[in-house]
Design goal:
Elements (H helix, E strand, L loop, with lengths): L6 E3 L2 E3 L5 E6 L4 E7 L3 H20 L2 H17 L1 H12 L3 H19 L6 E5 L3 E9 L2 E5 L5 H14 L3 E5 L6 H11 L7 E3 L6 H7 L5 E5 L2 H12 L4 E5 L4 E5 L5 H13 L9 E7 H17 L18 H16 L3 E4 L14 E4 L6 H4 L6 E7 L2 H9 L3 E2 L2 E4 L3 H9 L7 E2 L14 E2 L2 E2 L4 H6 L2 E9 L1
Parallel strand pairs: 7-8, 7-10, 8-9, 10-11, 12-13, 12-18, 13-16, 15-16, 18-19
Antiparallel strand pairs: 1-2, 3-4, 5-6, 6-22, 11-21, 14-15, 17-20
Bound molecules: nicotinamide-adenine-dinucleotide.
Length: 470
């Protein structure tokens, strides 16, 4: 892949009118390339291009739009190998895992292309015909985070474009490069203006959410930013989907087979260096199996190789960016200054990279910061419980409600507990599983609306009821 990164506006590759900003490799802490800095006038151009493309795209039959999504999937697969190395360099994740994200995103495009919005006929009598169809909204403002840059962008592109909307997409300034390449790749597939990709620093997101040319905002990121986005959207009553933060609890009952679940629980907490909105972030373990699980998790942590994602054998990469690294270090310092017991995994590389050792916090107080806040980094508080009612209350005592997990050999009891958890997704004896045909979204401060499934598709559409007198 060439390293001349361009935005895609109206189907054309465009440099940033306001210059470039640096992109860092989190494994070294060094800038290795630069991305275009979008000017306000270029944002206007991108929105105008999306608006001009909208009537034609909306009028294109859905089967043809779906066919182009499948072509986009094929195109993404054809560059997946090359892109996975760039992905690893800008995002930090090991190359093989980066490849899985890109291939998974292509499969997502394929799966969404097969979806169709429902048509509901309320009456078809001698006197009238009444049906509800779903129509697109217009121009979508899509804003994505840095933890799964390709996947979470595709979660927006696929349903929005299938539904007949056009889009201006902005990746995180920490991971702009693969998304820019994807924009250039897709420019050869979708008509000009249907999908525009722009990049810029911290000012670009607020410019976008305040822009009157958008009809809908689809945002994935932190709860704090989500609140700002909602405020900004109110002025023009823009439609809104917010996928925000989480502080997910997992509950481990005393009947588990520890050797079977330890690795799975570790993966659910630490995959992608714990930078997953739906990672296990509070691990509640019944007192009878607490010590056994803790010792197994520490042993796995010690056998896990944290390092540069470009190196063979690395299991977990660095924290993705300096801002997040400093935040996680601050939580770690807080835990240390409160004399919490920290159990750590193998050594991490020294130097400028944003590395933090895998850390398990041994039964900290419920009100400690490491329990109450979303760490979004490899610090996992492990907490003891005695009674099921008590642990459900503790799990639900959070401003967040994104996902959670229950582990038990008694599946019926686990499902019963799962139903009492105040979250949008809940897993029983598994973790991190999400599907294109099933809605995903947060309760409470974890979000507003859904992505994926029919619910997610309809977030990019509005119902239109037609009454026909006979
Ligand atoms: P962030 O909120 O800092 O940034 C997300 C995106 O918003 C970036 O593209 C950023 O440039 C942009 N942005 C920043 N300020 C903005 C503003 N005022 N107006 C408009 N856009 C703005 O989040 P992040 O640090 O990139 O991502 C980590 C967070 O995202 C975590 O809290 C995580 O839980 C959450 N997340 C949620 C989901 C989900 O589906 N629920 C998925 C992944 C990540």
């Amino acid at each position: 892949m060439t390293s001349d990164y361009k935005m895609t506006i109206n189907g054309r590759p465009v440099s940033g009118a306001d210059g470039k900003f640096e992109v860092f490799n989190p494994a070294t802490g060094q800038a290795f390339d630069a991305a275009p800095e979008c000017s306000q006038a270029q944002l206007d151009e991108a929105v105008a291009a999306a608006r001009a493309a909208y009537p034609g795209w909306r009028a294109t039959p859905i089967d043809e739009r779906a066919e182009l999504l499948r072509k986009a999937a094929d195109a993404l697969l054809s560059v997946a190998d090359d892109m996975s190395r760039l992905f690893s360099r800008e995002q930090g994740r090991p190359v093989d895992q980066a490849l899985q994200e890109i291939q998974g995103a292509a499969q997502w495009l394929q799966a969404v292309s097969a979806m169709r919005p429902p048509i509901r006929v309320a009456e078809d009598s001698e006197t009238q015909f009444v049906e509800t169809k779903y129509v697109p909204l217009g121009v979508v403002c899509a804003i994505a985070p840095w933890n799964f840059p390709i996947n979470l962008a595709i979660w927006k592109i696929a349903p929005a474009l299938l539904a007949g909307n056009t889009m201006v997409l902005k990746p995180s300034p920490f991971t702009p490069l693969c998304t820019l390449k994807m924009g250039e790749l897709f420019a050869g597939i979708f008509p000009p203006g249907v999908l525009n990709v722009i990049t810029g620093g911290d000012r670009l997101g607020p410019w976008m959410t305040a822009h009157p040319g958008f009809d809908k905002i689809s945002f994935t990121g932190s709860t704090a930013t989500g609140k700002r986005v909602m405020e900004s959207a109110a002025k023009d009553l823009k439609r809104l989907t917010l996928e925000l933060g989480g502080n997910d609890a997992a509950i481990v009952l005393p009947d588990v087979d520890l050797d079977d679940v330890a690795q799975k629980i570790f993966f659910g907490a630490f995959f992608n260096t714990a930078q997953i909105c739906v990672a296990t972030k509070r691990l509640y373990v019944h007192e009878d199996v607490y010590d056994g699980l803790r010792d197994r998790l520490v042993a796995i942590a010690q056998a896990t190789k944290v390092g540069d994602g470009a190196e063979q054998g690395t299991n977990l990469g660095p924290i993705q960016n300096k801002r997040q690294y400093e935040r996680v270090l601050e939580l770690l310092d807080d835990a240390k200054s409160n004399e919490l017991t920290l159990l750590q995994g193998a050594d991490v590389p020294s130097g400028e990279g944003y590395f933090i050792p895998i850390t398990i916090v041994d039964n900290p107080p419920e009100d400690s910061r490491v329990v109450q806040e979303e760490a979004f980094g490899p610090i996992l508080p492990m907490l003891k419980f005695e009674s099921v009612d008590d642990v459900i209350d503790r799990a639900n005592a959070s401003e967040y409600g994104l996902a959670g997990a229950v582990w038990s050999q008694d599946t019926d009891q686990a499902i019963d507990i799962a139903r009492r958890m105040e979250t949008g997704t809940i897993w029983v004896n598994q973790n991190l599983m999400l599907r294109p045909d099933t809605p995903f979204g947060g309760h409470k401060n974890s979000g507003f609306g859904s992505e994926n499934g029919e619910e997610g598709l309809l977030e990019f559409m509005a119902p239109q009821a037609v009454y026909v007198a006979k």
